[in-house]
């Protein structure tokens, strides 16, 4: 179910899990369009030589996945604030899940707070944070 | 909040003074590709014909100034990306030109078993050509202090 009004949102609600495209090809293309040319984003072997477990997903792409998950859940939601902590590398070509849970609802200001995480296939949290989103009240 | 003496001095000297200014032309081709790669499917991020066409909210995080720390700021160690934050005030319209001004927003420390870690938060404030404040983008850098 997608959310179209803040009155549809429930405290503690878990957002539908989003599985992002972390393929090396996507990561390379993303790094290229934002002007980050480092081999750590485009080549597993080169990244390992730099001490990473493999080519890594730029932190801001992880942040983009988190926002995309929120928009899949509430297509008209407006992101007011997002803050993310990069705890450990998100490795390209590895499966990850993007999760979120509603932690506060402010119906006076149409604001919803969501705890957000990027978790790898071992269940390890790689990125976590919070988002504040505005969801209009149904007229 | 109490700070170590050296950090208090750095806060006094460096916080909230703009040290960089850049202009950015927001290319719709880039914003659309950015949105697609993040997994966005809404037409307002992907279709230039959408009346509310705009860049993804976190697109501003990809826009960087010419330097992330002010001149003269001490290097405590190798800097690592510790996190990003974005605040959105108005939609960022592809095709527009915006200005980003950078200042140090915060300096603080955490101490663990391996010693002191120094965190800096550099904030870029983005404005449109009319001077309207569009967004803030925060970059948190952590430096493990050399012993």
Question: How would the blueprint of this fold be written?
Answer:
The complex is a heterodimer of chains A (139) and B (147).
Chain A: H1 24-33, H2 44-49, H3 59-73, E1 78-86, E2 96-106, E3 111-120, E4 125-134
Antiparallel strand pairs in A: 1-4, 2-3, 3-4
Chain B: H1 5-14, E1 18-25, H2 28-38, H3 43-46, E2 79-88, E3 97-112, E4 115-127, E5 133-144
Antiparallel strand pairs in B: 1-3, 2-5, 3-4, 4-5
Task: Summarize it.
Chain A is α+β, with helices and mostly antiparallel strands and 139 residues long.
- General shape of chain B: elongated
Name of the CATH homologous superfamily of the domain at 6-21 and 63-134 in chain A = Hotdog Thioesterase
What about the largest sheet of chain A? 4 strands, antiparallel
Uncertain regions spanning at least 5 consecutive residues of chain B: none
| Structural category of chain A | alpha+beta
CATH class of chain B reads Alpha Beta
Number of domains of chain B: 1
Helices and strands of chain B: which structural class? alpha+beta
- DSSP strand count of chain A: 4
CATH-defined architecture of the domain at 6-21 and 63-134 in chain A: Roll
- Span of the ends, CA to CA of chain A: 19 Å
Fraction of helical residues of chain B: 10-25%
> Biggest interface pair, residues each?
A-B, 31 and 25 residues
**Succession of helices and strands of chain B:** HEHHEEEE
Keywords:
heterodimer, A: about 140 residues, alpha+beta, Thiol Ester Dehydrase, Chain A, 4-stranded antiparallel β-sheet, 3 helices, about 30% strand, B: about 150 residues, 5 strands, about 15% helix
